[in-house]
Amino acid sequence: MSTAAITPEMGNRGKPLDANSYATKKTIAQGMLDIALLTANASQLKYVLQIGHQHEFYTLMLWLISVSIVLQACQGVLYVMLGSVFNINKTKDQGGANLWNNVVFAMGIITTIVNIIISAFDMRETEKMGSNITMILSGNSQ
Q: Transmembrane segments in this chain: where (predicted)?
């Protein structure tokens, strides 16, 4: 059996799972999600800067969004470093690759937590709801 092909209990459903193909697709999907998060953070930053100090949590949001973007940029650099500097087929590189992989993983967890906090303080939806409720109560509903 080839090391690139994993044959789980598949019955007669098709060819065996190719681990390299799976890993490549997973990496591409992760990259797309990272780009989507970076784009969302850029949009949030633009919104907060446009609203300015009218936003109830202006300083907090500005700080959190900036931290999130910096963490994502650092993760990107570390991903490139992991892919180009370390060769996990060499025993001497395995320890360093494992260490930096754990660092990137921890940064990903911190980025997720920061973005959860950002979404908790994001006022866009509540402002829209508040203005809609005001319009309805004043009889200006459309």
A: 60-82, 102-121
Interval 13-39: pLDDT, tens: 667 777 677 777 877 888 888 899 999
d(CA 93, CA 104): 16
Number of residues in the chain:
142
3-class secondary-structure state, position 4 = coil
Q: Distance between alpha carbon 86 and the CA centroid of its chain, in Å?
A: 24
Sign of CA dihedral 130, 131, 135, 141: negative
* Residues 64-120: tens digit of each pLDDT: 999 999 999 999 999 888 888 888 888 898 898 899 999 999 999 999 999 999 988
Cα separation, 72 vs 65, whole angstroms: 11
Per-domain residue ranges of the chain: 17-125
Identify which of 108, 103, 45, 26 has the alpha carbon closest to the alpha carbon of residue 72: 108
